[in-house]
Amino acid sequence: MRPLNSQAWKMLENIRIVLVNTTHPGNIGGVARAMKNMGLSDLCLVAPKSFPSEVAVARSSGATDLLDAARVTETLEEAVADCHLVVGTSARGRHIPWPVIDPRELAGIVSEVRPELRVAVVFGREDRGLTNEELQLCHHHVHIPANAEFSSLNLAAAVQVIAYELRMMALSAQRAEAPRWGTSWDIELAESGEVERMFEHLERTLVEVEFLDPDNPRQLMPRLRRLLLRAVPDKVEVNVLRGILTAVNKKTRS
Amino acid sequence: MRPLNSQAWKMLENIRIVLVNTTHPGNIGGVARAMKNMGLSDLCLVAPKSFPSEVAVARSSGATDLLDAARVTETLEEAVADCHLVVGTSARGRHIPWPVIDPRELAGIVSEVRPELRVAVVFGREDRGLTNEELQLCHHHVHIPANAEFSSLNLAAAVQVIAYELRMMALSAQRAEAPRWGTSWDIELAESGEVERMFEHLERTLVEVEFLDPDNPRQLMPRLRRLLLRAVPDKVEVNVLRGILTAVNKKTRS
Q: Of A6, A89, A180, A241, whose CB is crowded by the most CB atoms within 10 A?
């Protein structure tokens, strides 16, 4: 895939992940890893139960720079005070309905935020999520559309999904429409003439090995044409097929 | 969000998650949890290091039904033998480039698979992913577009991202649309096992006609695999290819 350009990076740099009252330090490490994998770097911890922590370092698998740089605050208000858009993650069915969006809609909204503004995405406790009071600090509530009978995601898994959507948004925001007919590797597509000469060689060889009866060819060549044309062969592949046919010719004539 | 209707459920039910040689049983538990959160249920483990495992049960947070039902196989070939579309997760930069898609494109393809066909998404080892040989069993390679400088996701996090995209697809594909993976004619697609036996026959024959040197095979078989898997052969086409190989065998041995 394409590397991110500076504008897309800037978009991801302005996103802060806030974890409220995390109980298990392993989850903080898992979150740091997921963030760094997706190109996010701003982590803020509201009153974590155990931090800094060796368990967090181990689970981060090398994202220790994010852990070292993480800010720790006493309250959620402090953590988001300098942000302009605050989004809280939420299960369904709160007392007061709030605008609920899914992670893809969140990414769409973030893509429209002016580059000088800061965005916070807030994740709650492992067992109870965010309180109603905390959710009411937020402009939007984002809900990952999980299985209603088994809806509680691991904290790092939830951050992974949101961070993935934000990265996909940043990537697509910079994508020039890529052409889609042609190989996606470094060998050119074969031209029609080369492919036809290969089919002629194939037909002669099939007659030679007595698999194709010229007086009763049935649908053999059409079937083989349909198969190979579906694959849209490149030049090297056509040459490999010609090489195989030549090897068979030599062997059967000797 | 909308609950899934029976057709969308059916789509998710036909998706198998395959984990190859997983080292840490905690990751197996995390995968089961992520799958169940997203409505997937078919888990297959290829030669896991430690399973069944109490650690897996703990990390699954209640997705023990998936762990209990998980199938364990010795080889990847067994795990995917009855599947029609096989997708391997991959980092970039393999020797032979293969068609690489992102998780959203994967979901788009899966949404077009005929409902009677089975899909496998294959995840590799925690440290080294899938081997080139394993990747060459696959029709497509899916790559999660991670930070190039820190690209290795936790196994459960990677499954979470893919499963999330598949669920989002199922949710948005509630409308009935014509499926597109599978033949649009009246012959069934070949299963992975049939195709593999054809490749084995092809390889033996290429050695016999002295086109393939077993001591220096270079990239011949991978190239032929890539070509023919791109075409997604039906049962009759595979039989035709076997017939050609048998005719060549007879002729060269006579």
A: A89
The predicted pLDDT at position B128 comes to 92
pLDDT at B1: 43
**pLDDT grade, residue B17 (50/70/90)?**
very high
Q: How far apart are the first and last CA of chain B?
A: 68
Domain chopping of chain A, boundaries: 6-173, 192-253
A49 to chain B, closest Cα gap in Å: 20
Kindly state which CATH superfamily the domain A6-173 is placed in: SPOUT methyltransferase, trefoil knot domain (3.40.1280.10)
| CATH no. for B6-172 | 3.40.1280.10
Q: Identify any residues that bridge with B183 across adjacent strands, giving them in sequence order.
A: none
What are B202-218's pLDDT values in tens digits?
Answer: 999 999 999 999 999 98
Q: Give the gap in angstroms from C-alpha A94 to the nearest C-alpha of chain B.
A: 14
- B69 contact A CB<8A: no
Give residue A3's pLDDT band: very low, low, confident or very high (50, 70, 90). low
The answer to whether A43 and A72 are in contact (CB under 8 A) is no
For residue A211, pLDDT over 80 is answered with yes
> A107 at the B interface (CB within 8 A)?
no
Q: State the complex-level ipTM.
A: 0.77
pLDDT grade for A220, boundaries at 50, 70 and 90: very high
With vertex at residue A13, the alpha carbon angle to CA A10 and CA A16, rounded to the nearest 5 degrees, is 145
A152 contact partners, CB below 8 Å, separation of at least 6:
A91, A146, B37, B61
Partner residues linked to B44 by β-bridges: B18, B71
Kindly compute the dihedral angle of the four CA atoms of residues B135, A202, A213, A247, in this order, to the nearest 10 degrees: -90
Q: Say yes or no: do domains A6-173 and A192-253 share a fold.
A: no
Alpha helices for chain A (secondary structure H): 6-13, 25-37, 54-59, 64-69, 76-80, 103-111, 132-135, 155-173, 192-208, 220-231, 235-253
Q: Which fold has domain A192-253?
A: Helicase, Ruva Protein; domain 3 (1.10.8)
**Cα angle at A22 between A18 and A27, to 5 degrees?**
90
Closest residue to A164, CB basis, from B151, B161, B209:
B161
Weakest-pLDDT range from A85-94, A128-137, A147-156: A85-94
Contacts (Cβ under 8 Å, ≥6 apart) of A111: A11, A169, A170, A173
Selected residues 77-96 of chain B with any CB under 8 Å from a CB in chain A: 92, 96
> What's the pLDDT at A162?
98
